[in-house]
Design brief:
six-stranded antiparallel β-barrel, OB fold (Dihydrolipoamide Acetyltransferase, E2P), 5 helices, Elongation Factor Tu (Ef-tu), domain 3, four-stranded antiparallel beta sheet
Length: 384
């Protein structure tokens, strides 16, 4: 009996000792500004000042829902040109350099070709013959009207005139294609060389000839592009097609420099899927001029779908622990409680939040420094 009483006494002393130790430990944690409960963090004034912790409120914000899509910069075919010539020749002059901007019609180079001289001679000779045939036809017509000559003679004169007229049109067209105006051509201004002119305005991309080299007919001698008419070709997959409309605004960035965005607007949507893909191309016009954008660049774009007025917090106020999202609210002087939330649209530095546990609308929320609170709360527990 005596032994049982002693055993109960020692057990009682042990329980009292454990309780006192736990109380002392909790009190110590509280005085150091650490975790006092599972979801509450207490910081000292010095700690709050050191991390520049700031409080704010839930706000109603118009946040824009966006759809992220990828694509590349393209140039319409009418704003890129490959310049060639119809007849070969030796390069006499090159008058431009790569990277230079030229206006449509500017002479890029000149070439020498003896066939061009012969073509001009044939044109002038035919014109001289045409003048004679026109007069001869008029004389034969008058004789025919007076029944003096035979009908065959009149028809022969008419035939020769028509042949000469057709030849004039043919030779004139060939001269025009070579940049020579047949109407102004005479024996005193026969050109010994022909000019290669720019068909469009734009930048010289490539020059594929050199001085004294023979330029082959139909070979590409110059390439010209006009980047002022760049547009976006964006690939939208089947599940998102219903979200896209003509007139929607876009913010896009070069895939290699996502920090700089550019504005654009959708102007056309293809009406058929791309080959072997359940996606359509959406075309958008760029609303600014910049020399940093080049054809073929890949871009990341965000299409503005709609605006929603919703409860939001600065994005910095929301922290992650694994796949879960949390905020911290003030529950007393220098005491902050972790609250689980779900998030929605992010726009202009704010993120839509839905609080899973109900809190008063005027609750003070940590909008700067939440990361440090989470670090303290998860210290030693495998923070992710």
């Amino acid at each position: 009996m005596k032994n049982n009483i002693l055993m109960i006494f020692f057990l009682f002393l042990g329980l009292v000792s454990c309780k006192n130790n736990a109380s002392e430990e909790a009190a110590t944690n509280d005085s150091k500004g650490t975790v006092v409960e599972k979801s509450i963090v207490a910081f000292t004034d010095e700690q709050i000042k050191a991390i520049d912790l700031q409080l704010g409120n839930f706000e109603y914000k118009n946040l824009t829902t966006t759809l992220k899509i990828n694509g590349k910069l393209s140039l319409p075919p009418q704003y890129q040109a490959q310049v060639s010539i119809l007849t070969g020749g030796v390069v006499k002059n090159i008058l431009v350099q790569e990277g230079e901007f030229v206006n449509a019609g500017k002479t890029l180079a000149t070439i020498v070709n003896t066939e061009v001289i012969q073509l001009q001679q044939d044109y002038l000779e035919n014109n001289a013959n045409l003048n004679y045939l026109e007069k001869e036809f008029q004389r034969q017509k008058e004789l025919r009207d007076d029944n003096i000559n035979a009908g065959k003679t009149y028809q022969q004169a008419q035939r020769e005139l028509q042949i000469a007229q057709a030849k004039k049109e043919t030779l004139g067209s060939k001269l025009t294609q070579l940049g020579i105006n047949g109407n102004k051509l005479s024996s005193k201004n026969i050109a010994s060389s022909i000019a290669i002119s720019a068909p469009i305005s734009g930048y010289i991309q490539h020059i594929n000839l050199s001085m004294g080299k023979y330029a082959d007919a139909n070979a590409v001698l110059f390439e010209i592009i006009d980047n002022r008419f760049l547009h976006l070709d964006l690939k939208v997959f089947e599940k998102d097609i219903h979200k896209i409309k003509i007139g929607q605004s876009i913010a896009f960035s070069d895939a290699n420099d996502v920090s700089h965005t550019h504005p654009a607007k959708i102007y056309a949507i293809n009406k058929a899927f791309e080959p072997n893909e359940q996606a359509v191309l959406v075309h958008a016009k760029i609303n600014e001029t910049t020399e940093t954008l080049l054809p073929g660049m890949y871009v990341e774009a965000r299409v503005k779908i709609d605006n929603n007025k919703t409860i939001a917090l600065p994005t910095e106020a929301i922290v992650n622990n694994g796949n879960d999202h949390f905020i911290f609210i003030s529950v007393g002087k220098n005491r902050f409680k972790e609250i689980k939330v779900s998030i929605g649209t992010t726009d202009l530095g704010f993120t839509e939040v839905k609080v899973i546990d109900k809190v008063p609308s005027d609750t003070k929320v940590v909008i700067q420094g939440a990361y440090y609170l989470l670090s303290e709360l998860t210290k030693g527990s495998g923070e992710e």
